Amino acid sequence: MPFYHKQGKIPAKRHTAFKKEDGSIYYEELVSREGFSGMYSNLYHLQRPTKISKVGELIKQELIKAESKHRARHITTANLDSSGDALSARMPLFFNPDITISVATITENMEYCYRNGTADEVLYIQSGEGKLISNFGTLQIKSGDYMVIPRGVIWQMSPSETVRMLVIESAGPVETPNRYRNRFGQLLEHSPFCERDIQVPVLQDPITNNDECLVKVKTQGGIQEYTYAHHPCDVVGWDGYYFPWSMSIHDFEPIVGSIHQPPPVHQTFQANGFVICSFVPRLFDFHPDSIPAPYPHSNVDSDEVIYYSKGDFMSRQGIQAESITLHPMGLPHGPQPGKYESSIGKKKTDELAVMIDTFKPLHVTEAALGIDDKNYPLSWLN
């Protein structure tokens, strides 16, 4: 997120001796993107952040493409039998080289730390509460939050109740949309959200014990386990532009018009190969002859995924909370029979949904096929 922030104690100058009261020094760590040319932050540790005491097992993971037809899908994720911690509970449903889309039901604390070394992560919190504790500090978790965790951040999730979430892993950086930022990186006046809506981590007291700590690192080949000689959350301060952050979908201000506005007005994030949009309660179009329901359209260059969070989904029938629809490129789709006509004259919508448009075709996993509505592709018949 392109704005400067700092927490805790930091020295007056970078790369200088930052001394403790006993005369010893704190250890600086630079976390940066694009080598030394992108966003970065500097963290200051009680101990060296490189003290690995054991290289453990590599737990191989591979996403498998299921053999499936090219068709629209309705995936009822509420029917998935998933539980565990924020890593073990994940059930991948769709993927391509740019993105992996999963859902998870979090019932347990993470008894280890986790670092994704290959992807940025966006966690959309469908329900539940808890804390996301990282080496940058703690973020509170609540329903409707987008938790944005850049690659390389070390974190744990501690739910205070069951957390159900949508998980988006991005091979490239997750950013706010270019068109909503000025040349200085500030979100523009007409952006549907601003920096006031963004929550940054609050640095907790550094962990000072010398107990070993297991850190699971996601690599291209799977999960590599490392044991560190101390806990990585021994940070006394940090500053920079690179850190985990969150914002609530409820703080996204919809853009409306006299006629139906296209999906880009709902864009919330951009990444290499896909965008994320937020559909929130909003007033409908106010032209006297407007049709509020989205017009039928063909996805020529993208696959469209919608995660239905809650509310009245005015263009769909048979959809429940936590359903996911996939409308693949090359096929027209739109409101189902009667929904187009019945939307005329309506004043507002009360739906909440997350849309992901990808610019490469998505592969479907066996887990997704197991909860797929086989009759959905025929649901546009009268």
The number of domains:
2
Tell me, what is the CATH class of the largest domain? Mainly Beta
Shape: globular
Percent of residues in helices comes to under 10%
**CATH architectural arrangement of the largest domain:** Sandwich
Radius of gyration: 22 Å
Number of helices: 2
Strand neighbour order, sheet with most strands = 15-19-12-9-14-7-6-29
What is the CATH T-level topology of the largest domain?
Jelly Rolls
Spatial separation of the terminal alpha carbons: 47 Å
Strand elements, count: 29
Main beta-sheet strand count, sense and barrel state: 8 strands, antiparallel
Into which percentage range does the β-strand content fall? 35-45%
- What structural category arises from helix and sheet content? mainly beta
Report mean pLDDT, rounded to a whole number.
93
Per CATH, the superfamily of the largest domain is Jelly Rolls
Unreliable residue stretches = none
Model description:
By secondary structure, this protein is mainly beta. The chain folds into 2 domains: 51-64 and 82-236 and 244-248, Jelly Rolls; 252-378, Jelly Rolls (Sandwich). 2% of the residues lie in helices and 39% in strands. It is built from 2 helices and 29 strands. The chain has helices at 339-342, 366-369, and strands at residues 5-8, 27-32, 40-45, 52-60, 73-76, 91-96, 99-106, 113-116, 120-127, 130-134, 137-141, 145-149, 154-159, 163-170, 198-199, 213-218, 222-228, 235-240, 245-248, 267-271, 274-279, 282-283, 297-298, 303-310, 323-327, 332-333, 348-349, 352-358, 363-364. The strands form 6 sheets. It has an 8-stranded antiparallel sheet with strand order 15-19-12-9-14-7-6-29. The protein has a 7-stranded mixed sheet with strand order 4-17-16-8-13-10-11, with no helix packed on it. The protein has a 6-stranded antiparallel sheet with strand order 5-25-24-28-21-20, with no helix packed on it. A hairpin with a 7-residue loop joins β2 (27-32) and β3. The longest helix has 4 residues, at 339-342. The model has no long low-confidence stretch (mean pLDDT 93).
